[in-house]
Amino acid sequence: LLTAISVERCAGVLWPFWSRCHRPKLLSAVTCSLLWVLACVFAGLVYFVCDLDHSKHCWTVLGTLCFLNFCFFTPLMFFSNVILFIKLRRSSWQQHPARMYIVIFLTVFFFLLFGIPLSVQIFLNFFVYINFVFEICLLLASVNSSINPVIYVLVGSYGKSRFRGSVKVALQRVFEDR
């Protein structure tokens, strides 16, 4: 989902006219639905093939997941955010990027910092298993899973002399589209 959000925001900045006028209305919903279905299919495969069956096909499923993550989703997310960041930095009409762009950038940055090590470790488990490193990667993935609400509240309350109001107000500030 981070990849889809990153690509959509990048397309919105690179081609704003197309994004506002010609982009199919249901594109985001269909894309997210397909990604959820893909995630459920792979989670089900991992559960049935690796946990229940303990077959040799487990390595095929995990290898496919690693391949999709390393060769498709992560590079696409990384490059779309780099393009988005460069485009926003070069634009003279926008001195301060919108809060939504900051949230997306920070979310992707922390995903690359905390979420990717677990995928790297799972890939390296094909060759050598190091228990201590795997546990650290699990801890980093847990931090990645819990940092997003903190990002939303901090970005939503940024620029105020001190945090006034509720978390709900901060979240509304982050997700309002101007």
From TrEMBL:
It is found in: Membrane. The keyword Signal does not apply. It is a multi-pass membrane protein. Gene3D superfamilies: Rhodopsin 7-helix transmembrane proteins (1.20.1070.10). It comes from the Eukaryota. PANTHER family: G-PROTEIN COUPLED RECEPTORS FAMILY 1 PROFILE DOMAIN-CONTAINING PROTEIN-RELATED (PTHR11334:SF68), MAS-RELATED G-PROTEIN COUPLED RECEPTOR (PTHR11334). This is Proto-oncogene Mas. It comes from Nipponia nippon (Crested ibis). The lineage of its organism: Eukaryota, Metazoa, Chordata, Craniata, Vertebrata.
